[in-house]
Design a protein that fits this description.
Layout: E1 2-9, E2 25-32, E3 40-44, H1 53-66, E4 70-75, E5 88-90, H2 93-106, H3 120-139, E6 149-156, H4 167-183, E7 195-200, H5 202-213, E8 220-224, H6 232-235, H7 239-242, E9 249-251, E10 258-264, H8 280-286, H9 291-297, E11 304-310, H10 319-331, E12 336-341, H11 363-380, E13 390-395, E14 398-405, E15 408-415
Amino acid sequence: MQINRIYEIDSCDDVELDIKRESKLEFKLWYDDEKKPEALVFITPGLGGDADNNYREHLAQTIASDLNVAVVSVNYHCIGNRPQTGSTFYLDEIDKLILDATTQAAGIKLPYGVDKIQNYDQMSEIFHFINQALIKGKKEGKFRLDYFLNLHVSLQPAKNEYQNFGIMQAQDLINVALYLKKNAPFDTMGGGIPVIMIGSSHGGYLSHLAAKIAPWLINGVIDNSSYAKFLWKLVGFGKEIDFIQYSEFSTFDFFQHIKVFCSNKTFWTSNSSSPYFFSPARRMIRNILEPSHLQIQTTYPKPYYVSYHSFYDRRIAPPEDKIELYDIFQKYHFDAKLYMIKEQSQIDGKFIKSLDHGMGMSIKTLIKKELPIMLEKIKNNPKKEYKNKSISYPCEDLLYNFTQKEDKIFLEIKGNK
């Protein structure tokens, strides 16, 4: 019989920004109590549709039923960062500056100063006022009929979280794997049960990042359309530079005459004098495609990798980066295969539905296609116990050290001389 359990555990604090975590880490586990699972399979959602709970539940149930594995789904830090997953809109100080400057330039006088906007209702009231002013102005000939105003709003993720981007999220995946190896309600082969990470887009990126942080723990990664380098648009503070170019997404859904650009709440900043400066070192540790780091990984047990990617994915996950990453994997003798989808003939309408980012891919089909192959490889070449459960990555002026102890992964950051 298939069993579904929900867990809450302590995970990691934000070591980089010295912020203590307020929330527990929640995850779900599916398994058949009449079988002995061959692996812990993490299906890690990205942003948007695949973070939907109903979709995740159905997918996990299907895989746990059809294959002899236990399936894990983790609500990693800041997963609730879209309206459909629990985030709410607000205006921070930069948003208010943008609002003030933009409306003044358009000749729209607000009923009160932007400093008076303290909550969602006031924000909504102001935006409705602006939209009506634009409608009236178009009727009076003050604006072209196709004119619209560009404004920016921030997203407050669920659980009062914020966008750390990558590091805490990957630590969450690793901490769940370590917890289950010790505490799962089934035989974990003395803690030696294989761990396989699967994900699309940001979920695939986190799967690769978890393997970078704990290569001795992760046996394999199955990926669709992840980015090989951190994505500026998703870090949250791009609006400090250009809120139109570096916002996470934009929409006309709320107001017909206002294009609303949206980014997550974050403490990272482009201000080099701030302790929260997103420095080159912070970027470097988040890159999967970091040649010097990949060379360090070669001295550890090598996970298996398989990835699918559209050759035309220019806006979110440049294919050149992915090709270079997998070329380096091959150079260092990783068992890593990249399927670069280039031709219309490869669109079958079932597995691959487009050449856009994500390719409209059926993740269920991806898993059923690639997971049995990876399980067979792991079975034929089991990962031996690796005593050195610590890895260090030099990043410009900082040294990031990840260590597994007491069934958790810990991060320590020191100066790199």
